[in-house]
Structure formats: C-alpha cells, structure tokens
Amino acid sequence: MRRVGVITGVLALLGIVGAGACGSDEESPEVQAPPVASSPAAEATSGSVLIELDDFYIDPKEIDGKAGETLAVTAFSEGQQTHTLTIDALGVDREFPPSDTQEFSLPLPKAGEFKVYCRFHRAQGMTAVLKVSE
Ligand SMILES: [Cu+2]
Questions:
Q1: Where are the beta strands (DSSP E) in 1-134?
Q2: What is the pLDDT of residue 19?
Q3: CB crowding 5-24: b at 16 or more within 10 Å, else e
Q4: CA dihedral over 50, 56, 62, 66, signed as positive or negative
Q5: Domain 45-133 classification at class level
Q6: What is the DSSP letter of 51?
Q7: Mind listing the pLDDT tens digit for each residue in 12-54?
Q8: Ligand 1 (single-atom ion) residues, CB below 5 Å
Q9: How many A from CA of 19 to the centre of ligand 1?
C-alpha cells in the first residue's frame, strides 16, 4: 500500500512537472512602440511660448517670462506677408516668409517690459509686449 502511494506521488509529481514543461503558455509579448520619450531639456529652458505672426497682428499680445529663464519660442507666420519678430532689447530680429516656422531659445537676462514687433507692419498693429518679471 505504501509503495503505491509513493509511486502515485511520483507520478503526480511528474505529471505536474510535465504539465509545467508542456503548457508553457507564454504569450508572445506584443510588440509595442516604445513610449515617445519626452526629450529631456537639453538646455535650461524653463518655459515655452507659441507666437503667431499674421496679417497684421502678433498673437499673443503679451508674452510672459521670468528673468534668468530661457524661453523656448516657436514662432510661425501665417498670412500672405513676410513678417519679422523683433525684440530690440534682446537682440532678436527674425524674418518669417509666409508659412515659415522657427524655433529658437530666447534667454531672458533681465526683468522689464520689452517691445515685440514686426519691422514691416508695426504701424498696422503688429506689436506685442514681453513682460519679464524678477
Ligand atoms: Cu509683419
């Protein structure tokens, strides 16, 4: 009686092992696109702003920043005219043909209010103000 018991036990054990070996139900992992890594800021940009140049306005009219920051600026031109994004106090003067988009870093070394405008259409209202707080 004892023996049978042992044998049964061994068989049972083998059965379990066998089942374990055969029944590898590992699902092939689905191929997933790696998550889009949000690129770590290569430089110390602390804010970003989107600026639209159009016939004939600059949007937004007010751009905010903090002294010591570097703004990541994306500026794009709509409309039919060539426009500029000009900030004399910060040495910015970029020309945008129609449909042009430019990305650039804008360091804000000092606090103050700086005029932003288009050299060609300042009189038509293409102005904005960059407010840099302490
Ligand atoms: Cu313009």
A1: 45-54, 57-59, 62-66, 70-77, 83-87, 92-96, 101-107, 112-117, 127-133
A2: 47
A3: eeeeeeeeeeeeeeeeeeee
A4: positive
A5: mainly beta
A6: E
A7: 544 444 444 444 455 555 665 555 544 444 445 579 999 999 9
A8: 83, 118, 120-121, 126
A9: 76
